[in-house]
Batch of 4 targets.
Target 1
Amino acid sequence: MKTKLIAMALGALGTLASFQTAAHHSFAAEFDANSPVHVTGTVVKVDWTNPHTYFMLEVENEDGSYDEWAFEMGSPNGLMRRGWKRDTLKIGTEVIVRGTQARDGSFKGNVQTVVIADTCQRLFAGTSQRDFNENDSPKEDCEL
Amino acid sequence: MFELKYSALVKPAFLAMAISTALTTSMVKAQDEDAPSTPTPRLPDGTVDLGGNGVWSLPWITNFAARMPDYQEGDQPPMRPWTAAMWEYNKSNNVKYDPEGFCLPPGGPRSMGTPYPAEIIQDRDRIVIIFEGGGHVWREIHMDGRPHPEDPNPTYFGHSVGHWEGDTLVVDTVGFNEKTWIDFGGYMHTDQLHTVERISRPDKETLHYEAVIDDPGAYFEPWTVSWDIRWSENQELQDYICQENNKFLLDMMDDYGQPFFQKTEGL
């Protein structure tokens, strides 16, 4: 499995002024808008809970070791309005995640988009982060 | 449907579709300007119907100041010094102590500008607003002409009485507790808060919401906010139980670097 962790120096994620969807708590209190995350890994657990859903992602490092990330998405009601089901993300699926890392620097992130590696299907995570421009191509994610 | 599903192969088709959608949208818009909007729905007795087969898509209003009339960048409500100091403090810690982040109810006018939709249910002697968000809460507006209690016990939503002025529902509320904020950005209030909300439905698709925030304990004078709320036909409220798994709180640190809950010292 080809995996990569890219700490992008993009300023794009820094502009979170337009809240398109909802969060019940302060995004900025928990996550660092200047620490974007872009990782590929395998889903090992899904928590379909309020006020946020989570999935755990096993990410392989260059040296063959693994990190387990906890990724936060929107609440089930918000995700269902975006077409998600509780089993949209299945255990064992390889996905590419874009999001933002927690302020404390732990392997915890808030998700912006999830791309299913096999199909290049992109899912928006229903968080308060800006949705990607619909004209952005998910191909870039797939070719990681 | 997912927001977007396409591969490189269907991308040209998608673009063509997007262009045709854009054209159609602009044509519809042009027609809209000429055609009258869908009339305000009414109950059999002529009263404005605030419901129907759908829900109100509440906007997420994070900064109430920006909803004041003639707002310009940087304008603030007329805060007393302590309110201004608390606002600065709340801002300095990224509003981490926002009660709604604790899954507590938004209370007051904030409930009409908090994530997730709402329904307004008109009963004979009362109007009930049910909220999907804000902890899955509701508020009740007495329409039977009763006065406020002499000395109400403070609550998250206070005591509301309403009446119709023409086609506008006017709701007067007192008896708030001090456990909520005015908005996400950290404007606070006291239990002297008194709100007067004016709710109208100029057409089927629009709810116009206005609130006077009158709290001499926190503000030098009353200030007004307003916004429009869009109707979402055929939508339904869903389940949202914020209290279930609020990891935000479990991980939160206080100002001294101690876990907000499960403190290890200084209790």
Note: The two ends of chain B are 50 Å apart (CA to CA).
Target 2
Amino acid sequence: MKKFIITILLSLSVVVFYFFRPTSTSFHQSDYSEIADRSIELCKTCPPGFQLNEFNECISKNLYLQYKSLENKGVGGLKTALPKVRDGFSPQQIDLGRYLFFDPVLSGDHTVSCASCHDPELGFSDGRPTSIGIQNNSVSRSSPSLWNVAYLNKLFWDGRASNLEEQMEGPLYANNEMGTTKEKLLLTINSIENYKLLFSQAFPNRQASDSITLHEIYTSIAAFECSLISLNSRYDQYAHGYHKALNAKEIEGLNVFRSFVARCSECHTPPLFTNQQIAVIGTPEPSGLPFDAGAEIPFDDKSRRGGFKVPSLRNIERTSPYMHSGGFKTLRETVAFYTEGRGHAVPENEALILHWHIWEPELSDYELDRLVDFLKTLTDETFKPKIPSELPSGIILTHNASQTL
Amino acid sequence: MAKTKATSVLRKILTIIIALIIGVFAGYKIFSPKAKEAPLPNSNALYRSTAKTNDSASVSNDYTEFKGEIIVVKDGESIVEAVKKASPGDLIRVYPGVYSETVYIDKDNISFQGIIQEGEWPILDGKKQLNDAFLYSGNGIQIENFKIINYKGNGIMGQAGNNFVIRNNWVIDTGVYGIFPQYGTNGLIEHNILTGIEDAAIYVGMCDNIDVKHNKVYGNVAGIEIENSRHALVENNYAYNNTGGILAFVTPGLPIKTTYDVIIRNNFIIENNHENFGAPGSIVAGIPPGTGILIMAADDVIIENNIISGNNNAGIIITDFENGGAKASNDPESEPNPDRITILDNFMIDNGNAPVGELKALMLTQLSSKGPDILAIGGGAGSTIRDKNRYRTFGLGSYGEAIKDNTREVFTLMLDKPVEPKDISEKELGELTYYGICAGCHAFDIRLIGIPTNVIQMIYKDNPQGIIDYINNPKNLRDDYPEMPPQNYLSDEAKMAVAKYILTL
């Protein structure tokens, strides 16, 4: 009897599939390659984590929207709302942004894409202590992960940008990163027929004859970056009330993490695991690198010397090495930094105003191990986007930083 | 012969004594009142009906009946295990004994009641090895009647729990803070005794609508600190022999940037002259010993009817961030000045007998070796004082005459009803779950990793329970699809909501 039902269900589903079989044009994040020579169509559905509304906008949806937060700041405890999200981009803008993100045509010599340093296979970072730009130029800081960047109001390690558009002008036009210019970028993108078609889909209100603007390029890339959501880790299952999601050691780690001895959660505050502030904690630079003044420079404020943005810890397991210049290879080394003495790594000639939470917690080896156990429960890459197998520019995709490692 | 007579007399006496003992014992048993169980804690302390009383010390409320389970914990047992068994609404009763645990509570509406028997308390002892005694994230947490000693971090710490009551706890040397609610709205901290804390004994950090009443704090670096919080009433507390008695601060660099609407009234703030033993680098390490009240960068603070005496540096210091002595990086988003401070009637004597540091130097420029009752230094605007002439003041030149003369109309700064959870309909919960989780593998009419949602609709038409059974324990029915991981971690409500939502998409 059971077998009979299963057989019926199976055949039913086969029939249903025939009617609803996937077609390349409506497939979510359709691969451009399949349709390169035919009609070009961007994805019409939102990525996971978003609901399409009647205005063709993708609106963020997740279980944290069940909760409130104090003063709507998105910081607190387990069942606390997230900070304000940046959403409302169209599915087409998000999909176009995906192509742009992976396309090295954006860089001065067409060798480096955004994904070169923000590789989805490496937690949207690059696995290096400090990044490498065009022509093997070295960059002074490490590449920050882009997971959940839609919730951030400070960007760059020194917090100098307050939105993604402002931020992306940094790497695009820095000589040692993507090394292009505004003029060159516009000229390049406007000379590629495929991009003209794609931009007219993503920005339907424009005249077909209008040339592509910087604003449209930035919006598309921002749209894609804001679609990178990671909120379904085992920690999240625990937070929403399923206490079996973490084992006893991981719960011990959570309790060390939020204790007022370790004080991790005072700055890496749930649910985003950052309070989005600048903190001076005095981490060491890897050998050979000069002291980095951090937030002192953009804010022109000596009291913030050596200050950096508190990074989110979501998917932290995937983004070694750690800190602004990759000084620590492992999570274990990183958590141990905080218990090795207030200011122990500050150069002798520096008088930094260290953050008050940097103190002498005297954590045991056992506690440090449990902290690492807990940090690994923050991993969730279920919404990882698909990498295009072919690009509108026709460049063969070799985005992967790990290939050149 | 004489011997047997003596023996029989002895026997008679013994019999009488034994009979007497039995009689007394039986009489005691029969006539003495039965030992009553401790009464249930007052679970309604949160909701004060100010209409019923003018006395802010009394709690008046409409009693709601206790309907939960009572879970008993006795010496040798574990409070943590009791929390694991508890459901929202339950009461955990802890009997006298020593418990060395970190009690973490990630559930809502759990109450803890220490049972004190003839002066014997349930003791949470961290033995200077454990970090925190109570650590809660749930709403509606109530903790009373515990003696908490020798922890390294906090006695009681809350992270985002609303509607809390912390009272009648005796907190000794629990590390950095004694009682520290953070990111909470609507809480009551009353009738606690705290000492030996190296930062603030009672630290209200980034909270809204908190009453701190009837507590005794002594021998700490800071007695009571209201930091980056709004709507706080600090009343009827006794703060003595701390480095600083009562503080209202804005600390820069925190995600919530303001402190305003704080009333400090009817407190005894006496001889807060303890040497500062704060950890190097901590914000309170900069508090000069001998400080009664310290207002730094907070706005709309009213100081009324306190007895402030014997504080050797100054009775009240009102300062901006720059002059506050705290060492921290600047924060452009944090307004550094104390604005609209109001000082009403206060009984201030014998303050400033031995000013220290910068204040000492400042007073010497005035040819005085004594510190003032009230010092205002640095920026700030709109502050006022009632009957300024009665105090010895310094730096209050810009202070106008106070407009109001009392705060009698304010009985509490807590909310008049508990903070409710966000109102989410079943449809919305279904929507959040579907797009927030299911959409990772399922789209409506196309194949992603899992089958299209419209196929699920056909299979489970009018049968949401069928979907729930499947996601709890998926069985791979199709060779052409990978097996679905169980989604049993979702709450029962979320499962039903998403099952119904899928069927109505």
Note: The CA atoms of residues 276 and 310 of chain A lie 6 Å apart.
Target 3
Amino acid sequence: MPTVVHAEHGRGWRRYTKAQSRVRFLITLGVVAALAVAWNSISSQTTWSFVLDAGVQFRDMGMRMFPPDGRYFTALARPMIDTVHMATLGTALGVLIAIPLAFAAARPTTPSRLYVRPVALLLLVTSRSVNSIIWALMLVVLIGPGILAGILAIAFRSVGFVGKLVYEAIEEAPQLPITAMETTGAGRAQALAFGLIPQILPTMAGVGVYRWEINIREATILGLVGAGGIGMALQASIDALAWSRVSVILLVILSTVVVAEWASARVRKKLA
Amino acid sequence: MYARKGHALATDLARAWRPPPRIESRAVRTLIVVSVALYLLVAALTVEVDPGRIREGMSRAGDLFGGWLRPDFVTRWPDIRTGLLESLSMTAVATAVGLMISIPFGLGASRNLVPGPVYVVCRGALAVFRAFNEIIVAILFVAMFGFGPFAGVMTLVVATVGFLGKLLAEAVEEIDSAPLDALTTAGASWPSRVVFGVLPQVMPRILGLTLYRLDINFRESAVIGLVGAGGIGATLTTAFSRYEFESVSAILILIIAMVFAAEVISGHLRRRLL
């Protein structure tokens, strides 16, 4: 809070005028009041005896998780490979759908600012607002449990993310090369292929790899609603209260995530 | 005759020119393309598709999409309103608490402010906070704290600290070091170096990131309800398991509308404040 800090050391100089500090005070008061109301409503929905019990529960859960069931490890290879497949294929499909949408949404390339652009933007927002596990929930109803539902859920969620970043890249790219090529007689397609694509290709690749890393994390939980991968093993172990298996699964997820993060960081550093 | 020949030559040249490739060695390029294609093929072949089940599901698609086109805000309105208010409360509390915890962690994870051991511990803690998906954290917290929004708040706090702490540390590491050096030379203590040398430089960034995280926390609060951590997600799961797709549609529309509104408002706030 800079107001306080500055008021303390010089009586004569103040950073804000009286009116400004009054407004700032009122805003702070409003935020604190809103937080108090919010906290109150949560507190009323909470069984505090369970919360106070948490330490005991935590120790209990830790003891059941330890030692991890080492024999279960081999049974996890297949679900984990499925999880990585889901993330990779889902990202690939998502990027394929996102690119035409991004071109339709970006001001310089959209076929129609009045009709096409708003529709493309709406599709991108919808894709982003619905979490991949909710997409999975709906897709499992439609096409049944399994890895295919997972791939599609990942793809549908990725479209909004990749599409938004790519269309912003298109709008931020200098338009001069395109104009120059069109002036020398290049067609629209040629001008885009040589004037625009080389400018946005590094962004596209970087965004794709970044999304893949996020998707690895997301793919690990889609199994909770039946969409394949290691989440199904997690759900089964939790339902059976087999906590020594849960800890093995968490370790496997953790190491995969770390490796994926490392790989993605290396690739993106190369691209930049 | 000559003119035509010259013209043809020029076209050939234009066709022949290609922008220089990013990876120079042709062998490496081919290898990458072939192995990526091979991997995608192998991965795609492991996907089991059951056409019978899909046909069966498509008959249900009518119900699902029909429900989407007829959103029903009325029947379950009391539940939806309670769920939304709970989600908003969870979002606000978790973002505020998460911000307060993330500042010490973020400062501790900045290489230019603290000695090596502190840096390693704080970075490690932040990495652990971010390692697991919110759903997994929520499952563990529901087992620890019981069902309800408290477990949800704790989940969102952990995710918020991991997110804000890491990005804050990155912002602090990029600050202009001159004010900090000046303060050190003048003999300022560590707290006053942070308050006068660091915070003024990163304040706009903290504000922007917090607004962004507020938006993410609201969206996540719609999801962690699936495993019993309260909020609109709980309402959504109930509607799903009752096959009330009209209510599901209404809830999803409300979530999308609120995310959209939040994006507009936070964009406006950021432009005014920064």
Note: The mean pLDDT of chain A is 86.
Target 4
Amino acid sequence: MSGVTTIDPSSARHSGIPPRDGTVARLRRRRERLFYRLCALPALSITLLVAAIPLALLIVQSLRDQETGAWTPSYYVRSLGNRFFTHTLLTTIAMAFGVTAISIMAAFPLAYLMARKSRLRTVLMPVVTVPRMLPFVVVGYAMILLLAPITGVLNRVLVQLGLLQHPLFILFGWPGQALAFTYSAIVVAAGILTGVLISVDPQLEDAAISLGASRLRSFFVVTLPLSTPGIIAASALIFTTVVTAYAIPVMLSGRVPYMISVVIATDLLTLQETHLAFAQAVLVSLLAVGVTAGAQLLLSRYGRR
Amino acid sequence: MTDMTVRMAVPAIGSRVRISGPRLLSAGLWTVYLLVIGAWLLFPILLVVVASLQGKLEVSWPLSHLNLDAYRAIPSGYWQSFWFTIRVSIVASCCSLLISLPAAWAMVRGRLWERRLISSLVLLPEIVPQLILGIALLTIFIPLGLSNSFGGVVLALIALNLAMGLRFGEALLEGLPEEYELAAESLGASKLAALRLIVLPLIAPGLAIAALFVFMQNLIAFVLLFFIAGPSATPISIRLFTDIVDRGVVPEAVAMSAMLVYVALIFYAIVALALGPKYMAGALMSRKG
């Protein structure tokens, strides 16, 4: 309150009343607070109406029977008891985990180079930024042109070179989907990790080397620990994106869906089991939000150390 | 002149001295790695562009018969979706910035006790997966008659953009000392006048960048809009997607994909010219498909 009263005299001078033990200041402060709340009100109300309330309704409906409207946890029990659902959920998690690990490892050296060599950064920046501005659908088309069984460039080249007897049928199955996800994920990881590695002072590495560490050792002892926050953030983002991706799993789908989003969409749109789909959607978002929250927790722990 | 020749000569001598076996090996490994990852990132996009120019579904070598047939054959429905996406993105970006900037200002300057509550609520659409938000919106948009409509798509995008706008806005305002506004107020300006005359001009460059990123996020939004889009409101990414599911890969769709590649290239050029490429790294923090 003391900070506010020091600002106050100007307003008191305007109205011509001497400040009386802070009542004017208190009034003014209240008016100010009201003003700021009004500023935040439109954003708040739109988020409430278009995000918070629909999500709450989704959760409520997932707990009610589709015909009778009675409260029941049966949709959750059915989902988790269904071997097909749990199996698909596990393959989805495995896919997301694998894509995250591979893309972080593949992107880290790239990000390191871009953070340390500014001329190289100017050249490489469009390479890692432009793919990020493309819808997943375009990535899907690119993968089809590259990997399609008969017409794909890769298969034709490999067959013509005699390295393959028959074209590889990897596109419409989990390998094709994994490659498409990895393509997008490398770009995301490279962007985030470059930002983090730029903020790691190169003099720290030099100091380690001047104290007798090899370049590799200074990387593992100095650079890697300092860039861990970026790795955590990028991993959480990639993991949740892959878990809930829908375009690529459908475009490059085989006979068996590997990804949980396809199962949910089928329940919702084709089978008309809407409340079951809601329950499954809630389960998947619990997973995604849990991973994000876990990453935040790790980050704050890390920041405190 | 002599100064410059000396400066140029020094690194040359230095590099000649430094070349040794292990160093050469590591330089070679780095080069191979860069070539592989560069090819992996560029080649697929290049394929889309080349295939669209050849008008076929397979790329043939050597590059011959380059033509614009596939572009001419793009059906009017694609163009409708393309312009629909652009219109929706512009409207949603403008609205969300107009709404999120005052909110960010209130968060940073207001000293409200409920600040954390409000800002984490506004950030909710970024934390919850778009797939689930899309399904949730479908369930309330159908009774309201908002699904399959311009307004519904715009509303959904605004909810998503507010989160990004708030993050950008808070970061911009945190970097601006409050004293400027207080000085204006002590000279008799109202709070709104201080915002208009002092704050806005100072953060305008950052705000322009934020607007571009929000716009791009809207152009590529897919999962959020998939469930609420319909025949009379189809963004281009969803039109291309449903087409591949219904009819398989067609040359016109590849040509339209190439158009989206050009849009991304133009966008990158604008941002890079406005900002310098070195700041691009952290700026595009969230990308969800």
Note: The domain at 74-283 of chain B is CATH 1.10.3720.10 (MetI-like fold).
